[in-house]
Amino acid sequence: MGPPSCSPVAALLDLLFPRTCGGCGAGPPDSGGWCPACAESTAGPWSVAVPGAGRVAVAGRYRGPLRRAVLAYKERGRRDLAADLAGLLVPPVAVVLPAVAGRAPDRIRLVPVPSRPAAARARGGDHVLRLCRALEPRLTAAGLPARTATLLALGRRARDSVGLDGAARAANLSVALRPANRGREAGPGEPVVLVDDVVTTGATLRACRQALRALGCEPIGSVLLADATTHHRSR
Ligand SMILES: [Zn+2]
User: What are the residues whose beta carbon lies below 5 Å from ligand 1 (ion)?
Assistant: First the structure.
């Protein structure tokens, strides 16, 4: 469900630009930018085997309506899809949770995988950070208080990872990842969940886990919207 149109201006904008479903273009849907048919077609959550990345869970495969919605949100300015896509991340969070000492934690910190500063600027903001902020109230409402901690950042030396293979992506990230805010946003021992949009080679997740460990945080798992790995197993 998207944010309510609570002002006359928002109501007018909805009239002028009716929001369509981010997955199939149908619309305007009753419940934000993700229609029931697309929700039905997204088969997750499931775990993805990503060597060296710990527990990884996704909302679905990177294809069809989910792929279109991720691309619309990330590259085509559909920021209004943040709430609907964040809703898709709640079940994956539940999948990675039981890893902590045999019992579910009573609160978590969401750590967004950082974007390159230039890419974030071009997109009008950090899309994964926005996803985390939209996920916070949904998890909190589900009984798991969650807050976002931007513990990682990419420096200017980060290159665009498009066209790089797994090893090159890892090398690119390891020189560019740095702790943001010196880790002050997470208390000691607070369970940390990494959040990103799409898992492809897993190099990003591995590099982020290493960087978090260097900060003294042990991530309990990673949640992503879509699985673009070549090997995946169903739940
Ligand atoms: Zn749809």
Answer: 21, 23-24, 26, 35, 38
